[in-house]
Amino acid sequence: MQCVDELVRRYGHSCLWWFGPWLPILWLFHPEVVKPVLLESGWPQRQEFNYMFYGFLKPWLGDGLLLSNGAKWVRHRRMLTPAFHFDILKPYVKIFNQSTDFMHAKWRRLVASGSTSLDTFEQVSLMTLDSLQKCVFSYNSNCQETPSDYIAAILELSSLVVRRQHRLLLHWDFLYHLTADGRRFRRTCDTVHRFTADVVQRRHQALDRLGREAWLKSKQGKTVDFIDILLLAKDEDGQDLSEEDIAAEADTFMFEGHDTTAIGLSWVLYNLACHPEYQKRCHEEIKDLMQDKESEEIEWEDLSQMPFSTMCIKESLRLHPPVMAVSRRCTEDIKLPDGHVLPKGNICLISIYGTHHNPAVWPEPQVYNPHRFDPENSKNQPPLAFMPFSAGPRNCIGQNFAMAEMKVVLALTLLRFAVHLDESRPVRRKPELILRSENGLWLHLDPLGPSCESRPPHRAPRAIHSPLLREI
Q1: pTM for the model
Q2: Is it the case that residue 152 has pLDDT exceeding 70?
Q3: 74: closest CA among 98, 35, 33, 46?
Q4: End-to-end distance of the chain based on CA atoms, in angstroms?
Q5: Stretch 431-435: mean pLDDT, rounded?
Q6: DSSP class of 355
Q7: Which of 189, 242, 243, 413 is deepest in the core (most CB within 10 A)?
Q8: pLDDT value of position 196
Q9: What local confidence, expressed as pLDDT, does residue 116 receive?
Q10: How far is CA 431 from CA 13, 18, 418, 437, in A?
Q11: Do 24 and 16 contact (CB within 8 A), yes or no?
Q12: Which helix (DSSP H) or strand (DSSP E) does residue 320 occupy?
């Protein structure tokens, strides 16, 4: 990361790296040079993922949105877009509240037993996995309290992929499959695939047995999950997604949706612990928002009433972007602003971290300053100055889901706890698949107000009577 900082200072816009003597990689870290690649290079058939950076995930995630290319990617993107419509996301806020309540009740018990310092990433990661299993599969694994084979498999697969990236000889599949890690990777993939395939198959059988109309009627008043949406999805020719495609998209969403959101939330809490004045202002904003409510529950309409807290989230995503870079292999020549032409077939590495820390774009880039995202201050920023969810046709389809979850969890956390740095555990950034901290993100927690257990019970999930379901 210090090397990237130096490259940005030295070259400003871009530079060419050689991976060995045969593979050139163009690093981009300024909105002007990122724009032609992400926004002006035509339909996404002209942008492909490349095996070097993403290929190790293929046996796990299959041909989901992250790894597919060309016509298949276009078809799936169109079919999945309704799954992230606001009408579908609204009921998920109830799930975010419930999973956060459970995490906070656990925190209070740990604090009461003397554990005032907690690794927030470990705790928040289990919470986001808990939420995702409910949103994707309508499955309650209770993984925040008891071990889950499926959750353990997801965590282990992420660790194995990172370890393989750091061992050059194991980049060749035939060597990797001979190692103990390679055998563990295959076994763990089987665990994840069995779980997903079983859920998809049982849900598909229920849909076939009842018929579409009766099945839709049976869903009225219930939260519609990700698998439901995928089963209902049809392309312009009226064709469904196959069970294999549905499983690949579900596995992709589970992978992309838990680690990134968890570490994003953890960095927000860390940054607010470093800046008590901003934390206090967030707390006051959320307290004012909740003062006339009968219960401590964040609702969908509340998410737009947290301007300063949202600014704090965005500034944390700028300073500590969970995904530090995305890569593209362009299948046509691309002309850059300075007149140079990027030949087709070459790999571009769009450095999100580099762009977010470019002093030509963000003055004093290492300083945490939420006021950068005040509407008045940010209106003149280039569109690609801030891109924690990437940008263009292949941007993150789940970014509204992620932002909604981060707002709910941050609001409830700052309403119930004050967070402070644990000075005995210094934070050292560690870039892996996401931007982690080398030894976790440890914070001191001071409970505020009454215990979660004394709160009124949650109301039943709001019924969904949206015509959107029939249009998918």
Answers
A1: 0.91
A2: yes
A3: 46
A4: 43
A5: 88
A6: H
A7: 413
A8: 93
A9: 81
A10: 22, 20, 28, 8
A11: yes
A12: none
